[in-house]
Specification:
With about 220 residues, the protein is of the alpha+beta class. It is built from nine helices and four strands; from the N terminus they run βαβαββααααααα. A four-stranded mixed β-sheet has the order 2-1-3-4. It folds into two domains: about 1-80, Glutaredoxin, CATH 3.40.30.10; about 90-200, Glutathione S-transferase Yfyf (Class Pi), Chain A, domain 2 (Up-down Bundle), CATH 1.20.1050. Bound molecules: glutathione. Glutathione binds next to helix 1, helix 3 and helix 5.
């Protein structure tokens, strides 16, 4: 397997966690430096025309793209331990929680959106940060509400780690990037604190990847 990755990428963090949970180690990790705009270079555009990471090539390909699709592919090809519950309502809830993160919140704060706000609409840095904090907090608020449901257990859905937890962990890392205090989201915080103690999550964390800044 070949993983296209960058330390800071929250979507790639999600895939790294899934790979770890499944006990899979890519033979090659190709760094796409988002801060240098390498995602827009022709070589990577040929891998993912959306110019975004992660992408994963398993064997002879094709290149897989979109973190949730990649994680479901890994879950289908390596079913144990499962990342989705067996019952359809449970599966829908887990996918819904995951999509709040990966489809409703994260796309609003990615580099291409931040750069467009800055270059096209002349947002200054504090305004871009305000934008990111707003959308990130909106998702945290919705997640906290959902997580107060009785289907929540030790983790987001029951007592086993699911796709929803993988997405919660990436939302928590994003909250750190934007200095959002998780005290307002106690259930979310309880779960992500617990996930952080699991090696598959801890070792996939952005700050543990090559190229990440040293802890201060
Ligand atoms: N919905 C996609 C998001 C992919 C995405 O936007 N990745 C970011 C890094 S987390 C990226 O590569 N951004 C490049 C850019 O915005 O220019 C997924 O979940 O895989």
């Amino acid at each position: 397997m070949k993983l296209f990755s960058f330390w800071r990428s929250l979507a790639t963090y999600r895939v790294r966690i899934a790979l770890n949970i499944k006990g899979l180690v890519p033979e090659e990790v190709i760094q796409i430096n988002l801060m240098k705009g390498e995602q827009r270079e022709a070589a990577f555009r040929a891998v993912n025309p959306m110019m975004a990471i992660p992408a994963l090539i398993d064997g002879n390909g094709p290149a897989l793209f979109e973190s949730l699709a990649i994680i479901e592919y890994l879950d289908e090809t390596h079913p144990n331990p499962p990342l989705l519950p067996r019952d359809p309502p449970g599966r829908a809830r887990v996918r819904g929680l995951a999509q709040i993160v990966a489809s409703d919140s994260h796309p609003l704060i990615v580099p291409r959106v931040r750069e467009y706000l800055a270059h096209e609409f002349k947002f200054d840095e504090p305004s871009v940060l305000k934008w990111c904090r707003h959308w990130h907090t909106a998702a945290l608020t919705a997640l906290e509400r959902h997580l107060q449901d009785k289907s929540t257990g030790r983790y987001a859905h029951g007592d086993s780690v699911t796709l929803a937890d993988i997405c919660l962990a990436s939302q928590a890392a994003g909250a750190k990037y934007f200095n959002i205090d998780l005290a307002q989201f106690p259930t979310f915080r309880r779960i992500v604190d617990s996930l952080a103690t699991i090696d598959a999550f801890a070792s996939a964390h952005p700050l543990k990847q090559p190229g990440a800044p040293a802890p201060t």
